[in-house]
Amino acid sequence: MTEPSTPTPQDRLMVSEMLDAARLWQRLAELARHGATPAGGVERLALSPAEVAARHAVLGWAAAAGLGLACDPAGNIFLRLEGRSASAAPVLTGSYLDSQPKGGRYSGSYGVLAGLEALCAIGRAGHAPERPIVAAIWTNGEGSRFCPGYTGSKAFAARRLAKGSLAVRDDTGASFGEALSAWQATAGGLAKIRLGFDCSAYVELHLEQGPELEDRNKQIGVVTGMQGMRRYQIDVEGEAAHAGGMPRARRRDALSAAVRIIGGLESVCSAPDVTHTVSQLAITPNAPSVVPGSATFSLDVRHADDTVLTHLGEAIRLICQSEKGPCRCTLTEVLTAPPITFDPLIGASTAAAAARLGLTTWPMLSLGGHDARSLAGHCPSGIIFIPCHKGISHSEHELISSQAATGGARVLTDVLWDFANA
Amino acid sequence: MTEPSTPTPQDRLMVSEMLDAARLWQRLAELARHGATPAGGVERLALSPAEVAARHAVLGWAAAAGLGLACDPAGNIFLRLEGRSASAAPVLTGSYLDSQPKGGRYSGSYGVLAGLEALCAIGRAGHAPERPIVAAIWTNGEGSRFCPGYTGSKAFAARRLAKGSLAVRDDTGASFGEALSAWQATAGGLAKIRLGFDCSAYVELHLEQGPELEDRNKQIGVVTGMQGMRRYQIDVEGEAAHAGGMPRARRRDALSAAVRIIGGLESVCSAPDVTHTVSQLAITPNAPSVVPGSATFSLDVRHADDTVLTHLGEAIRLICQSEKGPCRCTLTEVLTAPPITFDPLIGASTAAAAARLGLTTWPMLSLGGHDARSLAGHCPSGIIFIPCHKGISHSEHELISSQAATGGARVLTDVLWDFANA
What we know:
The structure is a homodimer. Chain A is α/β, with parallel strands linked by helices. Chain A has helices spanning about 10, 20-30, 50-65, 110-125, 150-160, 175-185, 210-215, 255-270, 305-325, 345-355, 370-375, 400-420; strands at about 70, 75-80, 90-95, 135-140, 190, 200-205, 220-225, 230-235, 240, 275, 280-285, 290, 295-305, 330-335, 340, 360-365, 380-385.
């Protein structure tokens, strides 16, 4: 008979017991002051003064906790808890601090602050993990100021900024490069590291941004993959004319054509599990008494199966042609994000941690995009979801409960600890 | 037997023979340089630097022609040819120099420059008319910078600026009052007159802005009246949400509701001779990946019969309610312009002048609004139309022929002469 092996500190320790849930909730409220809107949301566009202030708030808290601080040329920030093996590839978590123009106070902020609290909890537990654990703040996660988003995480995974990123301009004409320099001018005190480093795993914590967990009364979403997405720009060109003088039958009204096309998309995209959205639309000259001469709108289509998306693309092209009437219509695919499957070990660790904590779980797809998409090709990656009120997100009315916030942060803490000692 | 009466100079004179048609055409091109767009139109918003420059160009030509120059507190400009009876109520013509955001080079400008040339022609004829003849440049005719339009002509007819006019703001936040002051600062050399004066008649010359004259191959439109118009603002309020996460069935997508309503209007407004246009539309937050939370759009409905418009208003209200789905929808009538009938004597004079000049005529309604609507309650009023290419107006592609421009200006000249001696 051999002696039973002595339990290691890792076996005995449920590090999430150390989580300061009250501080997490309080800091969510404090962070929401940066860019606060009267309706209770935030307007904190990427690298805007409000977002830079939010970055410095988090940096201040991380510095007080004794974490290592660094930033990279994409504007990403890294908060680092050292491991016993300083040279081991760290475990990574991360989220973002930018928001939609009228966004919620939890998206992004929750993942960042929960990551910070997870690192603090693990530090407080008194046993250093084997691997370092790093919490990242990704630049331009939402992509609503500089489109497309995930600029920071994509640059991290590729170890270089995507071609043309620096030249992308916001609505006011300011470039991403200029905004990045404005942030960097405030980041003099931070260590500078190169873009990208090896990671042993990436785990992202986020609110669901849909109603499934709430509907099913589940506390933790074990995210197994992410549905695919195609984004199109549809340009309709007609002819401006006098709204009184030009008979309707003789018009080339670009908005009328756009409305027919958008109406037609309802049937084309009506298959189960297809989600489509027209979220941006502009017409010119957009003046009283002038028949619209042109209309441009976005179309976002999502499904878990890439083949379905490919077939839909063809159907969308046909509907544009059949409904354009006397106008010209061009369909341009501007973004393709194929469906992805996450690392099953992260899902298993998530489910196990939730079970230990007495939290119910549900396996599900992420219907929205996340920085984990960028990381999925870089290292084993996964996402943990918590419920959000009525599924509302990307809205000033976005809401999570403090219990849900605590539950998700505790699961994240334990999963990070798991992988940091694996 | 009595001696036959000696013909008066008025009887013998066809003053339109004196019209300098080449100069009219040349000045239309010169005026189009102010605010010229690359596509050949003009962007010359009311009281903008480009429109103020256009005003001064016309003032320079009028001064060189020896006409009297004056302006009023609404920014209206008056070019005056004296009559033999200085105290008689003048005959008035007029138009405007502002344009749509991407407008044509002829709307407004043509009526102003033809009025100037008519005064020059009558002056050149060597016989002063009995009454003074005045050509007005009305402020904010298009109403695309400061909505609603006809600000100057309405103030003239009412002898006061409409309540709240000065506070109306453009897209940049500048008020009409501020823009007016900017113009007035350049108008130091002009005589200042009070708002409004008695007129014996008002005759406006304009391109048709529709295809009827061209279709019927007629040269002069004898405008017998103006159809009525109602303008509505429709506000749809839904809820912003994540374009991936929120299932379509659970959304309160404001743009989807707006598209259903706009689609429904096609059938509601399908009766013969009803013209409806949605020409302004804005959604929020208008960001990628965010389900539209609100949508606001304009609806312009026109018909010659006010009763039809009233019934349509009720049908429009019903369609908003039936198609709004889970969103809220409010319908606000923001502008009402009833149908009007013009003075038959002006029509008769127009038809007679055209016949003398060998030009074909067609009696017709004005389907668009004009400053003549403001004047119709002030003095006997009327409009003369000339054809425009394919009916296109409120567009950079607006086009008239030089022959049509000459024909209309000659008819205007003779009609003004008629009424100035009546």
